Amino acid sequence: MTAPTPSPGTHDLAAGGAHSLVQSVDWVAVAPPVIVALAALAVLVADLFLTERRKSLLGPLSAAALALSLLALLPLTGGRRATFCTTAGPRACSYVVDTFTLSIQLLVLGAALVTALLSMTAVAQERLPAGEFWFLLLSSACGAALLPAARDLATLVVALEVASLPAFALVGLRRGSRLSSEAALKFFLSSVTATAVMLLGVSFVYAATGSMHLETVAERLPHTDSRLGTLAAAGVALTLIGFAFKTAAAPFHFWVPDTYVGAPVPVAAYLSVVGKAAGFSGLILVAVRGFPPYAHAWGPALAVLAALTMTVGNLGALRQRTDRAHGAVRLLAWSSVGQAGYLLVPLAAAGHQDHQGHRDAAVGATVAYALMYAVVNLGAFAVVAALRHRGDDSAQDGRLDQYRGLARSHPFAAAALAFFLLCLAGLPPGIIGLFAKVTVFSAAVDAGLGWLAVVMAVNVVIALVYYLTWLALLFRPAVQPTAGRARWLPLPLTVTIALTGVLALALSGAPQLVLGFAATTLF
User: Where's the NADH:quinone oxidoreductase/Mrp antiporter transmembrane domain (predicted)?
Assistant: First the structure.
């Protein structure tokens, strides 16, 4: 029996090629989530000693830690790294850094940094407990950054729960708010249900294959004892259903609108991007890397789920009235459900590919679309947050009608929101949104899913109605004459809108910066 090739995360201590059970840690590989975790602990301790006035320093400290974690990704771009590996073989590693890991960590940590900028104003004006807020945000971001690097089922579940559990508290952090409490409860109950289903599925898969590592599971599933075949199939199905809950795919989306409305706007923005990225990362890893022998089953299932999700999300957004309270956040919530359907399309296409390399490449279309969606959706939420804090008492209930005349009162914010909506709709000059949709559409066609491509095209047309309706309101006369007076926006919100706007413009001018993932094997 030949000894396996040592990975960067293990070392050979014994003579003759025998491997030690003692594992080394590649600290460079694990640096991004570790930096965020240490910052969360530092914030928690600092909160005990700082006065109320000085607790405002916790926001910049958290943002600096997230920026440092982004810089820690740079040394990892040289190639694949692995750590926390067993002696079972070179691929039996629990933590792997590859192109997929770096792409999702860039998305997650970048989105968390934008959320931190968004939150500085909200924490002060809504009187949220600063120490708890920043600790919970950093803790959740740590779990979300760990998840794409996880390569065994146990680490996947733990990372997903580390990302999810602090998010429950973030949603319900507005003390005394009935909406916030109800939102946190709905989010908690749905997530706990998903976790229970997922853990049951993971236990079945482990019982059938005897391994938690995704690569080993993929190798052993086709050779499972016939007496355990039903158990293995049930485990695969339950695990995928658990992750479908986390991605807010229909019919597991029911918690999204009320949760987004009840949460502070920055938290809703965080859930719409980072929460979704965490769910999709887990779904990609278990489906494409762990369960390829069952692609003939999960591929068609994800195709139906994608069609249902985008249709339910877009029809839900289409039903939103302009005079309804919290209409802007509700519309973005339903829009995020529809966008989740688009993100599922390449994964469904991956299930219809016969070659593992083609499946891995199909994942690139999802990653490219997710990067585009993260930038423009965070930008849209930044404008919503800016409107709530521009000084108009009437703006606090967030009706879409209150965006009338925004082009006159705040031309900068109105122009940015108009561009973000055009990107989400896939219309010029939002070139990145258009090209990202074409990439997803092409993935469905190339996989022979013509019917799904048609469903997607119909949904894109439906989405145009509510995106353009909102856009048109920006340039209509204001409902109240006093609403036309220009007011300064808080500096953190102005920086956030400018940052996301510049990124969206850059991606529209050079879409190959993200669309190149669609032609790349990420694993």
Answer: 150-462
Q: What's the pLDDT at 431?
A: 92
Per-residue pLDDT tens digits for 279-314: 999 999 999 999 999 999 999 999 999 999 999 999
Phi, psi of 248 (to 5 degrees): 60, 35
97: enclosing H helix or E strand: strand 93-97
Residue 276 CA, distance from chain mean position: 3
Phi, psi of 521 (to 5 degrees): -80, 110
Residue 89 to residue 222: CA distance in whole angstroms: 19
What's the half-sphere exposure (Cβ side, CA atoms, 13 Å) at 452?
Answer: 32
What tokens does 374 get? 């993260």
Cα 49 from chain centre:
34
Which pLDDT value is given to residue 327? 87
Percent of the chain with pLDDT over 90: 62
What is the rounded CA–CA span in Å between residue 439 and residue 457? 13
Q: Of 152, 156, 151, 186, give the one whose Cα is nearest residue 168.
A: 186
User: What separation, in Å, do the N-terminal and C-terminal C-alpha atoms of the chain show?
Assistant: 27
Residues 91, 215: contact at Cβ < 8 Å?
yes
For residue 4, what pLDDT is reported? Answer: 40
Report the residue count for the chain: 523
Distance CA 269, CA 140 (A): 14
Rounded Cα gap, residues 89 and 7, in angstroms: 9
pTM: 0.91
> In sequence order, what are the residues at sequence separation of 6 or more whose Cβ sits closer than 8 angstroms to the Cβ of residue 358?
350
Least confident range from 63-72, 272-281, 400-409, 462-471: namely 400-409
Q: What angle do CA 149, 155, 161 make, to 5 degrees?
A: 100
Sign of CA dihedral 483, 484, 486, 490: positive
Could you give phi then psi for residue 84, rounded to 5 degrees?
A: 55, 55
Cα–Cα distance list, 230 to 201, 290, 327, 408 (Å): 12, 17, 46, 63
Checking if the pLDDT of 483 tops 50, the result is: no
List the beta bridge partners of residue 480. none
